[in-house]
Amino acid sequence: MIKMKINLASIGMEKGRQYETIITTRNPDGSKNAAPIGVIYAGDDKIITRIFKGSHTLDNMIREKEFVVNITHNPELFTVSLLGNLPQDYFNDDYSLKCGDAYFKCKATSFTEAVKQSDPIKKKGEAIVTKSEVIDMVIDKPVKAMNRGFGYVIESLANLTRFDLVDDAQKEKYITRFKESNRVVLKVGRKEDIKAMQEIKKELIKRGYDL
Ligand SMILES: Cc1cc2nc3c(=O)[nH]c(=O)nc-3n(C[C@H](O)[C@H](O)[C@H](O)COP(=O)(O)O)c2cc1C
Asked: Which option is the CATH number for 2-139: 3.40.630.30, 1.10.10.10, 3.40.309.10, 2.30.110.10?
C-alpha cells in the first residue's frame, strides 16, 4: 500500500473529465453504503459530483461531509453496489472498499442545487452539485480511473464496420446510437476518445450520413 501526496493525475484523471467511481459513505446507523457515482476532476485537489436527490449517498455526504471515492474496474462491485447493498464485509474500517485498486478521501465544501442542460434528465432542483477537497489518497495497485469514453469509441468503430452490411432501418439505428455515443464522449471522454469520435463522425459524413 502506498500512502502518498495527493495527485489525481497519478490515477489518470484529467481536469474537467468525468470518471466512474464507487463512492462509499457512512449511513446514520454507522453502517457503510456504496454506490456508483461519476466524479469530475476539477484540478488540484478538487472534485465535483452531481447526485440526484433521494440517494443514500447524497444524504450521507450532506450529513457527514466526508466520503470515500473508490477506483476500480471490477464489474461486480459496480453492479452489486447499484442493484443491492454491498455486504459490510466488502468494506475496510475507514469506509474504503477492500477490493478497490485505489481510493481517496474527500471533504465536501459546498452543496448547490443544479441542473445541467446537456443531460437527458433536466428537471430543475432534482440534483445537488457538491464541490469537495481530496484530503487523503491511497493506491493499492497501479490503476487508471474508469472513464466511459473508450467503450463508446470501440462500439462506434464496431458499428462502423457493419454499416455496409445492414439495411437502411438498421443504419438509422446506428446513426442514432452514434449521436448519443458522441454526446456522452464529448461530455465525459478523454481527449483521445473525443478525437477518435471526431474521426468516426468525419468518416460517416464522408459516406453521406447526416450528422
Ligand atoms: C456508472 C454509474 C455512474 C453513476 N453516476 C451517478 C451520478 O453521478 N449521480 C447520480 O445521482 N447517480 C449516479 N448513478 C446512479 C446511482 O448509483 C444510483 O442512483 C444508486 O442507486 C444510488 O445508491 P444509494 O441510494 O445507495 O446512494 C450512477 C450509476 C452508475 C451505474
From this structure: 2.30.110.10
With cut-offs at 50, 70 and 90, classify the pLDDT of residue 116: low
The response to whether residue 56 sits with its C-beta less than 6 Å from ligand 1 reads: yes
Domain 2-139 identical in fold to domain 149-206? no
The pLDDT value recorded for residue 210 is: 83
DSSP string computed for 137-170: EEESS----B-SHHHHHHHHHHHHHHGGGS-HHH
182 lines ligand 1 (CB under 6 A): no
pLDDT value, residue 172: 93
Confidence at residue 118, expressed as pLDDT on a 0 to 100 scale: 54
Domain ranges of the chain: 2-139, 149-206
Q: Are 134 and 106 in contact (CB under 8 A)?
A: yes
Q: Which atom of ligand 1 is nearest to the CA of 127?
A: 11
Ligand 1, atom 29, lies closest to the CA of 36
**How many angstroms separate the alpha carbon of residue 160 from the centre of ligand 1?**
31
Question: Ligand 1 within 6 A of 37 CB?
Answer: yes
18-56: pLDDT as tens digits: 999 999 999 999 999 999 999 999 999 999 999 999 999
CATH architecture assigned to 149-206: Up-down Bundle (1.20)
What is the phi/psi pair of residue 147, to 5°?
A: -120, 135
pTM: 0.91
